[in-house]
Amino acid sequence: MKKTLPLLISALILSCNAPLTVEDALSTINKQDMIQRIEVLSSDEFMGRATGTEGEQMTVDYLVSQFIEIGATSGTEDGSYVQPFPLVGQTTSNHSMSFSKNGKKTSLSYFDDYVSWPADQSEKVEISNAELVYVGYGIQAPEEDWDDFKGMDVSGKILVFKNNDPEYDEDLFGGFTRLYYGRYTYKFEKAKELGALGAILIHTTKTAGYGWSVVSNSWSNERFNVKEEGGSESKTKLDAWITYDSAKELFDLGGQDLDELMTAADSPDFKPVTLKGVRMDASLDAQYRDINAKNVLGVIEGSDPQLKDEYLVLTAHFDHLGITTPVEGDSVNNGAEDNAAGVSALLEMMEAYKAIQPNLKRSVLGLIVSAEEVGLLGSEYWAQHPTIAPGKVSANINLDGMNVYGETEDVVVVGYGRSSVSDILIEEAATEERTVEPDAHPDRGYFYRSDHFNMAKIGIPAIFPNPGTQFTGKEEGYREIVDSVAAANYHSVNDEINEYWDLSGAEKDTRLFFKVGLRVLNADELQSWKPGDEFEATRLRMLEDGR
Fold first, then answer.
1. Is the backbone of residue 231 left (phi > 0), alpha (psi -120 to 50) or beta?
2. What is the dihedral of CA 489, 494, 500, 505, to 10 degrees?
3. Do 82 and 372 contact (CB within 8 A), yes or no?
4. With respect to CATH, is domain 88-289 assigned 3.50.30.30?
5. Which of 124, 121, 188, 128 has the alpha carbon at shortest distance from 159?
6. Measured CA distances, 109 to 48, 98, 243, 332, 417 (Å)
7. Residue 413 and residue 417: Cα distance in Å, rounded?
8. d(Cα 12, Cα 7) in Å, to the nearest integer?
9. Which fold has domain 47-80+301-546?
10. Of 355, 291, 353, which Cα lies nearest the Cα of 86?
């Protein structure tokens, strides 16, 4: 008896400390814990969690404490869990823009006809007598056998772009799905890559997906960028949008038919068109303020000696809009759904992975970023200064907004069918007799409007799950009600926990995403983009670099 008692006690202790099963881990993901974290993050005390504010620092401190409580180790070399990054806020003034030919001059009105800003971070832009070239969509896509530049040297010129990408063929550029080639950011980046002096995008509601007021209101306010350390080496000095009517005046001045050239851009045979004899003058002043922002990183290390230096990256942004003009006495933009809910789901997943840590082959990085609301800048900074080589990251699951209105039979995924991760989500959902639906509005380019996009840009296969639409156990017309509530609350002081919230949907979805991540962590191979995807070539380069 004396010999067996210590053995029994040891066995009992071991059984108590034994790792949980997957089912046990799933049960740790629950709506009670989720709502507690959401209540903290979306409280008035956190002042709307705006980037660079006291509210951001309070949020960072809270998230670090949560990672420590979970048992996650620091994702930064200094052990602080925090990745600081410098931003600049840019405002502009004293704008002018005009076009001339043979003594005839057309002057544009800022805000009504155009908006512009420095393409680098200079304090003054002065452009005189610059030549303009219309480059169609301005796309170079070898996988589509498409090159709008046809070898033309456009350095030192102002490039005029048609927005969007070709949509006339369902087998070309994803048909009506807007790819990165169709995003305005691609056009501005292409101008810099080719050494152009400036870039101007022609706005139409059809090619942008929104009206001119969205452009003028968004781009005339303070803009935010990751601070360029050591100064910019860009040859591109000016980025701008111009209205269709103003563009038509410009092309008429150059003896060109704008509508004909907009149509011509849909052909792979398109060649750049110089607006002969037309010259542009433009100027503006810019003012800057420094902002110190912070990402928060926690790690659950894998147990396989050969695979633990490979990762699944979970992302969610913690920032929101902060304190704005009061509406009925309320000035705090609490950001409960956007994105305290996503942060809470990420922490729930990290806690569940910690519970079965010995069963994880690869490691998990929980990357909770700031500055998403001002341009995806926290994830951009991480992508530019990754704490893990991109070729060592198997996949990214991005949690930006969760289903806070109840269980659904389906789940929507932005990035449907583009990667092996999407396939895993479809398979795991099927085991729960749920369906996975693609984005209902692929033409709006949602794939490029949250933090997973910056992961994709460096080759990491990424998905962006969204709430489903087929609610269960709710009255008829419930979806229309919550759609209306969600739309009214989006980016307003009303984004708070309300009477419609039912986190059984978020609980169910988070458990599903946990299972998808678990398969990624324990798969034989790293995840991949589907052949021909726009990010496949980058992925292959990153994998080669990561070896």
1. left
2. 60
3. no
4. yes
5. 188
6. 35, 9, 11, 35, 44
7. 9
8. 9
9. Aminopeptidase (3.40.630)
10. 291
Peptide bond into 339 cis (omega under 30): yes
> Where do the domains of the chain lie?
47-80+301-546, 88-289
**What are φ and ψ of residue 357, in 5° steps?**
-50, -40
Q: What is the pLDDT along the chain (547 residues), one digit of tens a residue?
A: 444 444 343 333 334 456 689 999 999 999 999 999 999 999 999 999 999 999 999 999 999 999 999 999 999 999 999 999 999 999 999 999 999 999 999 999 999 999 999 999 999 999 999 999 999 999 999 989 999 999 999 999 999 999 999 999 988 998 989 999 999 999 999 999 999 999 999 999 999 989 999 999 989 999 999 998 776 778 999 999 999 999 999 999 999 999 999 999 999 999 999 999 999 999 999 999 999 999 999 999 999 999 999 999 999 999 999 999 999 999 999 999 999 999 999 999 999 999 999 999 999 999 999 999 999 999 999 999 999 999 999 999 999 999 999 999 999 999 999 999 999 999 999 999 999 999 999 888 899 999 999 999 999 999 999 999 999 999 999 999 999 999 999 999 999 999 999 999 999 999 999 999 999 999 999 999 999 999 999 999 999 987 6
Q: What angle do CA 284, 288, 291 make, to 5 degrees?
A: 155
Distance (Å, whole) CA 445 – CA 167: 13
Query: In this structure, what token pair is assigned to residue 410?
Result: 């389906």
Tokens found for residue 70: 């979970």
How many CB atoms are located within 10 Å of the residue 358 CB?
10
Give the Cα separation of 425 and 427 in Å (integer): 5
pTM of the predicted structure, to 2 decimals: 0.90
